[in-house]
Amino acid sequence: MKFIWTIALSFFTVLPGSYAGESIQVVTLLGYPGSGKGTLAQSLDPDRYIAFSFGDFLRGEVDKQTKLGNTYKDEVEMKGVQKITLLPEDLVREIFTTKIKEFIQTKKHIVLDGYPKTIEQAIFLDTLMAHEGVQLIPIYVKVDKTILLDRILNRLVCPKCSKVYNLKYNPPNQRNICDNCSEKLRVRGTDSEDNLEIRIRFFDEILEPLLSFYQRGDRLVEFDGSLPITETCSKFQQYLDNIEGSDDLL
Ligand SMILES: [Zn+2]
Question: What's the number of domains the chain is made of?
């Protein structure tokens, strides 16, 4: 029996990464608003990682007034809440398939933020990854709820390049001005205190089923995101490097 398991395991370790000697990791970050997912993704070395936030991508499409952007804007305006689930699932899949294939071509690791949001999307993502021969690592960025609230209420976002700041933990060099592109920073419309309880409840409904889905498959990894942001970012890079290293050791 043990022998069979060894064979099965070695078979699986050969699968991830279709490029000889180089296995591409696809990480999906799961966590509440304020857990720092966006900041973590953006802090990684862009020569090695592509950070893809579905929300930012959609906001970009809206700004560029593409066909997709307009469809999304109409839906959001009609229903009032900003959710990826407002888009037809076929369309979301199509976008994802195209993007992932494009990213894999670059041979960089991929960090997803804001996808999947449903079990159906998680299953789809698994199928897509298996088809592309890459490994998906779901990482739960765990942060205490009191810290979450504190972070969200002090958050500022650049409307142009999407960089996220925090007045307490990660302030811009110049008050209210983006370090990257000198754009005036703003509070995200969804970050007000009134909205927060609703959003956290909304996220409970989204997150919990996803966390159990990945836990059931015994592949959820937890990352402590409650340290100050610079510390968290460097730990995150080390953490990913370790996962990458352990890949060859299996
Ligand atoms: Zn900016």
Answer: 1
